[in-house]
Amino acid sequence: MSIAITTQIICFTILSLVTLIGALGVVLLESIVYSAFLLGGVFMSVAGLYLLLNASFVAAAQVLVYVGAVNVLIIFAIMLVNKKEDLKPINDIKSRRIISTSICLTLLSLLIRVDLTNVWSLSSPQNSIGEESTIRIGEHLFSDYLLPFEVASVLLLMAMIGAIVLARRDVMSKDISTGLPVDQELIEKSSEPLLTNKN
Amino acid sequence: MEYGLDLEYSFNEFLKGFGLSSEIAHIIWLPLPMLLVLVAAVIGVLVTVWLERKISAAAQQRIGPEYAGALGVLQPIADGLKLLVKEDIIPAKADGILFTAGPILVLVPVILSWLIVPFGQNLLISNVGIGIFLWISLSSIQPIGLLMSGYASNNKYSLLGGLRAAAQSISYEIPLALSVLAIVLMTNSLSTIDIVNQQSSAGILSWNIWRQPVGFIVFWICALAECERLPFDLPEAEEELVAGYQTEYAGMKFALFYLGSYINLILSALLVSILYLGGWGFPIPVELIAKFLNLPINAPFIQVFTASIGIVMTVLKAYLLVFIAILLRWTTPRVRIDQLLDLGWKFLLPISLANLLITAGLKLAFPQFFGG
Fold first, then answer.
1. Closest partner residue to A72 among B156, B159, B166, by Cβ?
2. Is the CB of residue B350 less than 8 Å away from at least one CB of chain A?
3. What is the least distance, in Å, from the CA of B116 to any CA of chain A?
4. Distance between CA atoms of B124 and B116, rounded to whole angstroms?
5. A40·B144 Cβ contact <8 A
6. Which ipTM was obtained for this model?
7. How does pLDDT run across A76-120, given as a tens digit for each residue?
8. pTM (predicted TM-score)
9. Host H or E run for residue B351
């Protein structure tokens, strides 16, 4: 066994262990802040797995989008609303846990089935594109994947407008969905300076 | 353009001369450039700290450090030693794990980004295909470390500082990436080596700063904002927030923040010089000098000369920019947080978008000047 392959196996083991343990931590930990930070770790190790697959552009994009944007915003939101109060106990927590576990197990079995039925091996290792992948991704985005790409951008635009409407309730006197006048108290609360009421 | 010193090849050949296999030679080679760059980064920080002290003193008509070595050159080392031997304090109500992990998460991405900084044709750790994109994505990790340390300190000033740092970093990343994209559009490549080579045809005249003046200014402003230096040092604005996210930190953990911010400053200056000021290129092309002296470009003397000129030019350009950054820090007032976000979202973002659009148009209209 050559040194390169040994290194690859060691890296793969570490990365997948970090991914699995981190993902379990995200789900099982009580503290939401720890969950959010662990989620960042999971994203990072997934990016590492992409690197092992020679997909450096996808890895960097994963870091930029998921760690740099999504995860930072999640943590940002958690910290903006972070209040030192215990979560209310939920009555039917047991049945909820059973339902969510069964849904997750179903999804897992679906993934395992995909893994077993798909043919993963490339026809020849020379076909892997490696460093060329950036150019290939660009070509695909502007040819056969143009429509999904544009639809995704429209979706993001819609989400952005929705977020702005939700955040700027003060510009509207009427609630959009119900037609009732907007609760002015809510607006005042949101424009209060941060942390004045803390403790 | 495949010439230049290839130290890795010669080193491997040298080791193979002792009967080692090429794999072992490669493993012995691997840590050397990394160590070298790490040492270069740390020495760069020491020099920058000294410059910061001296230039700020000059700006305020003081003398500055004087007793530690000639002109106070040993002062940064004394600072570093002091921070090394200081007690490591974790506040009683802080979150110990996150408190320790925060500074590490701030420092590591910055050091990793040195992977792509070239000092010459073959003088960089790794010519990865995604090049400059690696730096953009790595620099987006930093706000997580800042948020982490701000939260873990359990201090309202720290939390506010961390939140500000994240907001600032997110808003300035977009114009930064867009102005880099304009350069990439002209180069047809993400690799830093290709970006420099594309600017090397006619010496100082072919540098990107002439073709991308708007991009240069936008990039420089955003780079300063990403480094959290005055006029954009809101996360640690001392009059409002004590010291922002580093309020509770002392000793080596504080030193990590300090080191991280200065390494980031040097890295930003290096990247500005690579993207806009021709990287390792001499203002007059070396090929012209060689032709003038009637020497072949592959002569060993010319090779060594080119390599050393390259290193000197890169460092010189970077330190010129560091000097400007230090002058800016000690002569400009701080902006308010709303002004900062306004500047980022309402001014720099539209301008950099327009710059990208115009660059694309010019590239189609004049392919010989703007990269075909």
1. B166
2. no
3. 14
4. 7
5. yes
6. 0.80
7. 888 777 655 566 677 777 888 889 889 999 999 999 999 888 877
8. 0.82
9. helix B349-365
